């Protein structure tokens, strides 16, 4: 987005300082609506986003939150494939001797791995068959289509991109705390990154589906519906890759202290560090109240040093219909308020296709 396209919206009330939270990082989850509040002011909401991330000026619209509250939300519009990031992969390697993207393995010897020869050897030793006798990896489009090589017991999943539509995201202008934090588990809706890419929780386990939905080196991939989305906070992922010994690099500029995204409850997500160190006073969702460069002393989340590095829960209510498309009902998108959706029920036969929203 050009500078001339950026506009000042109403004051960024979504970044609220709960006065009682100053005494304890846990206050953000106590649901005490009697706490006094001050809001950040003079913030250009559109200017938080990278150039080209938004396809239209943000607007404020009426919306309903998952707790039934009638309020207002910022409506952001983005491309299905953001021009602010490289969504070309690599994802699945063609052969076991090639290097593809990455994966967070949750079986025996769990951890963050590059999809390289050592990883496929590990899978083979644990009884998983992703490649044929020639070392050709079976690659399957989870939206349908024939595998790339002879079918093996398991497959590497790589969806076909579709840049023909837009997404609309609703973010509350003023957060409303829930009585209990919402778990952000497998394929949960987490938020909208300032590069214009939506963020989801853990991708489904190979143990549940038989297929491995490969991520690129920055932690994103193509949904079966064709849009690119994150399963990591990309601006902090290199620390995770280096710690895991994964021999791949994310090309996105790394900044472990940057403001990187809106959570769907309206609070901002920052990188894993603050003032050069990982904060030690974070609540169960990875949030706390502290001074920020952009908004002063407010509640916000931090990416973690775990893999994936996203917040594991959120403290506030998200909007119903928070992820839609203005381009027609034929586009398959998640429904609901962005909470924990869980893994696809049952999963497909080994080597088959997983459910939507990998």
From TrEMBL:
Residues 336-358 have a biased composition (Gly residues). Pfam families: YHYH. The keyword Signal applies. Residues 1-25 form the signal peptide. Residues 321-358 are annotated as: Disordered. It comes from Salinibacterium amurskyense. Residues 171-273 form the YHYH domain. This is YHYH protein. InterPro entries: YHYH_dom. Keywords: Signal.
């Amino acid at each position: 987005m050009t500078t001339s396209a950026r506009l000042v919206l109403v004051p960024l009330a979504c970044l609220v300082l709960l006065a009682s939270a100053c005494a304890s990082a846990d206050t953000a989850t106590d649901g005490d609506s009697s706490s006094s509040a001050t809001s950040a002011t003079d913030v250009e909401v559109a200017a938080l986003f990278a150039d080209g991330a938004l396809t239209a000026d943000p607007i404020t619209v009426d919306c309903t939150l998952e707790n039934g509250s009638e309020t207002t939300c910022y409506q952001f519009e983005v491309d299905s494939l953001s021009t602010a990031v490289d969504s070309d992969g690599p994802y699945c390697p063609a052969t076991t001797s090639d290097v593809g993207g990455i994966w967070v393995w949750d079986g025996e010897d769990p951890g963050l791995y590059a999809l390289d020869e050592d990883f496929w050897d590990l899978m083979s030793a644990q009884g998983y068959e992703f490649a044929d006798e020639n070392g050709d990896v079976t690659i399957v489009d989870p939206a349908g289509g024939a595998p790339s090589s002879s079918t093996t017991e398991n497959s590497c999943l790589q969806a076909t991109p579709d840049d023909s539509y837009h997404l609309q995201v609703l973010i509350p202008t003023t957060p409303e705390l829930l009585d209990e934090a919402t778990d952000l588990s497998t394929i949960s809706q987490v938020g909208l990154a300032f590069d214009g890419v939506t963020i989801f929780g853990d991708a489904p386990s190979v143990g549940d589906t038989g297929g491995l939905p490969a991520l690129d080196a920055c932690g994103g991939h193509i949904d079966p519906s064709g849009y690119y989305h994150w399963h990591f906070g990309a601006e902090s992922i290199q620390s995770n890759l280096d710690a895991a010994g994964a021999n791949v690099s994310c090309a996105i500029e790394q900044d472990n202290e940057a403001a990187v995204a809106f959570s769907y409850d309206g609070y901002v997500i920052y990188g894993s560090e603050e003032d050069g160190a990982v904060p030690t006073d974070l609540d169960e969702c990875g949030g706390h109240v502290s001074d920020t460069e952009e908004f002063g002393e407010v509640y916000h989340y931090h990416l973690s040093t775990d893999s994936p590095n996203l917040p594991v829960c959120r403290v506030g209510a998200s909007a119903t219909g928070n992820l839609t498309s203005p381009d027609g009902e034929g586009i398959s998108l998640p429904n609901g308020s962005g909470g924990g959706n869980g893994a696809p029920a049952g999963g497909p036969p080994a080597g088959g296709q997983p459910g939507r929203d990998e």
